[in-house]
Design goal:
The complex is a heterodimer of chains A (381) and B (243).
Chain A: E1 22-27, E2 39-45, E3 48-55, H1 63-67, H2 72-79, H3 87-102, H4 108-137, H5 141-161, E4 170-171, E5 174-175, H6 183-205, H7 209-215, H8 223-228, H9 234-238, H10 245-248, H11 269-293, E6 312-320, E7 323-331, E8 339-343, H12 345-350, H13 353-357, H14 362-372, H15 376-380
Antiparallel strand pairs in A: 1-2, 2-3, 4-5, 6-7, 7-8
Chain B: H1 18-26, E1 79-80, H2 84-93, E2 97-103, E3 106-111, H3 116-126, E4 131-139, E5 147-155, E6 160-168, E7 173-175, H4 184-195, E8 198-200, H5 230-236
Parallel strand pairs in B: 3-6, 7-8
Antiparallel strand pairs in B: 1-2, 2-3, 4-5, 5-6
The chains are: A alpha+beta (381), B alpha/beta (243).
């Protein structure tokens, strides 16, 4: 392929230009389109991907080890730093898992505020995904649109708990902060503000010829493969499986809300895009119901100041924006967890990358990494 | 109301009781690995109980990390789990199914290592546990069989989740389940990477999060929180120590 290596004329009879050159190229870990420090080793035949291998661990901080050396409450802020674009969801999963271990539950008011903040987070996560995914494929504009609108969510977070990204919004047993004055009104205003914005995004992309050409039929994965590979979240739903933990095994009072699970048919990048757009609308629907019905009452359950869950183990999982986020916690009855295992959705979903791009073009690898919506902080932990 | 029960968090601006700042500091000594000695404040969450605490942490004995019994009177314990699935599997495997328990509404089996692979295949095919959620391990260094290996399974058709738990000794090999669920590939690699448990029949068992040449298995209990493979760091990063 390189000009210094011209192919001798006699070779051409037996071999074509392409199959004489299998090319191994390295993508990342420093690459703008890998969404962090993901390294992918690609084996190419011309522009066709023959196979690939993901190399991960560049962001490994040993979160699970740290957990064993912290108290339950002290580990809480660490979970925000795994999937840092969906910190609130991470916190929800962790707090609920520890509450389960403590055999307690957050009071209803806390649950409603948790749902509101988590659904806002789902929207924020999908906005960030949309902006960067479109940017990878070559559409620059959506990035500015989504970041402009995501700002409104971050403002609500900042007003609520003082932080925008790694929020540490929840405490084990409920919430630390009461909702500020006008919280519900602002969330409602955001819903009204954001609904037409989704149309705006869709106007840019849904019927855009280039967008369709770059996404339809790209990175197709069947429902069967998704299940075998443990892929969850929007990727699974875009392949036609109507499964969402908020419905299948409701937690945090999600059974009280009326919403639908959007699904796709073809399991390609375009369907995953449509599913996530529809999910943002469903999140707005949940938000609208939640802000109207936030009950009064305490925001913190009666839990001891020093948390010592009885010996035992629980696995608790939630529907994070990226899929099933699970916490497996083993308590030995002391103040510190004996073991915390995090089952991150991105880690498992990334495993499907090879299947999804094999036989496709190298440019599609970028599109598929984007559509899987991975966060390396969560994969490497 | 919130200030009554916040473990180790900074005081809330509008309700800053003077007593609130104290517990935030008191809980800190617990950072030292496995010091379970901060026993001063038992369940009846009463803020005034706090001042008694500072005396206890320095008295922490270096050994004896795990208190065998919790001081609470009625400790919730795993209860036997009865279901059609349990009776059927027990009839088939007999004593190889050591326990079938339920805790906090979650069901799990404790089984002998020898039947794990066969049992998982049976669960996948006959009981439609088509989704392997997670494979993970826990290290108990003082036990004869040092590791708990845990499989979390979920059934899409039945919307049921169970866990299979088995004990594995250090150095013992476990049959891989990659052929049953391809998702186990990376999950088993991570267990190997962190605990050093070998999976027999795994297509590509190598480290996944730690660098390839790293020595030691970080999530074992005898691996210190600041421990590192100094040689690796010096050769590959070119610095004396990463700490």
């Amino acid at each position: 392929m390189s000009p210094t290596n011209p192919i001798p004329a006699f070779d051409l009879k037996e071999k074509t230009y392409l199959d004489s050159n299998e090319l191994i190229i390295n993508m990342g870990p420093q690459h703008p389109a890998t969404h962090g420090v993901l390294r992918v080793i690609l084996k190419l035949d011309g522009e066709k991907v023959l196979g690939l291998e993901c190399v991960i661990g560049y962001l490994h901080r040993g979160v699970e080890k740290i957990a064993e050396n912290r108290t339950y409450a002290m580990f809480n802020p660490y979970v925000d730093r795994m999937d840092y674009v969906a910190a609130v969801s991470n916190g929800l999963g962790y707090c609920e898992a520890v509450e389960k271990l403590l055999h307690t539950e957050a009071p209803p008011r806390a649950k409603y505020i948790r749902v509101i903040l988590t659904e806002l987070n789902r929207i924020a996560s999908h906005q960030l995904w949309l902006g960067t995914h479109a940017l990878d494929i070559g559409a620059l504009t959506p990035l500015f649109y989504t970041f402009r609108d995501r700002e409104e969510i971050l403002k609500i977070y900042e007003k609520y708990c003082g932080a925008r990204l790694t929020t540490h919004a929840f405490r084990i047993g409920g919430l630390q902060y009461e909702a500020y004055d006008g919280f519900q009104k602002e969330v409602k205003a955001f819903c009204d503000f954001f609904e037409p914005k989704i149309d705006e995004y869709e106007e840019l992309l849904t019927t855009n010829r280039i967008w369709i050409d770059r996404t339809r039929g790209v990175g197709t994965i069947s429902a069967k493969d998704c299940i075998a590979l443990g892929v969850t979240g929007p990727v699974l739903r875009a392949s036609g499986v109507k499964w969402d933990l908020r419905k299948a095994q409701p937690y945090c009072g999600y059974q009280e809300f009326d919403f639908e699970i959007p699904t796709g048919e073809n399991g390609d990048t375009y369907d995953r895009y449509l599913v996530r757009m529809a999910e943002m609308r469903q999140s707005l629907r949940i938000l609208r119901q939640a802000v109207d019905r936030v009950p009064d009452g305490p925001i913190m359950a009666k839990i001891p100041k020093v948390l010592k869950p009885p010996s035992g183990e629980v696995y608790h999982s939630i529907e994070a924006p990226k899929g099933e986020l699970g916490y497996f916690i083993v308590s030995d009855g002391s103040t510190q967890p004996y073991r915390i295992r995090v089952r991150p959705p991105s880690f498992v979903n990334l495993q499907a990358l090879e299947l999804m791009v094999r036989g496709q073009l190298v440019a599609d690898v970028i599109a598929v990494i984007g559509t899987l919506d991975i966060v390396l902080g969560e994969i490497d932990r | 109301m919130p200030e009554e029960s916040n473990p180790g968090v900074p005081p809330q601006p509008e309700a800053a009781k003077p007593a609130e700042t104290a517990p935030a500091e008191e809980t800190k000594p617990a950072v030292t690995p496995l010091s379970a000695e901060v026993k001063a404040a038992p369940p009846p969450a009463a803020a005034p109980a706090v001042p008694a605490k500072p005396a206890t942490p320095p008295a922490a004995s270096p050994a004896a990390p795990k208190p065998a019994v919790s001081p609470k009177p009625a400790t919730p314990a795993p209860a036997p789990w009865d279901s059609e699935l349990v009776t059927r599997l027990k009839a088939h495997y007999g004593s190889a199914i050591q326990e079938a328990l339920t805790y906090a509404g979650q069901n799990y089996f404790v089984v002998e290592k020898g039947i794990v692979r066969e049992l998982l295949e049976r669960l996948r095919d006959d009981d439609k546990f088509d989704y392997c959620v997670d494979v993970t391990a826990v290290h108990y260094p003082k036990r004869e069989k040092a590791f708990d290996l845990i499989y979390v399974l979920y059934s899409f058709p039945n919307n049921v989740r169970i866990r299979i738990k088995t004990q594995v000794a250090d150095g013992e090999k476990v049959p891989s389940v990659v052929a049953l669920w391809p998702t186990a590939n990376w999950l088993e690699r991570e267990v190997y990477d962190m605990f050093g448990i070998q999976f027999e029949g795994h297509p590509d068992l190598k480290r996944i999060l730690m660098p390839d040449g790293w020595k030691g298995f970080p999530l074992r209990k005898d691996y210190g929180i600041t421990q590192q493979d100094k040689e690796w760091v010096q050769i590959n990063v070119g610095i004396e120590s990463a700490q």
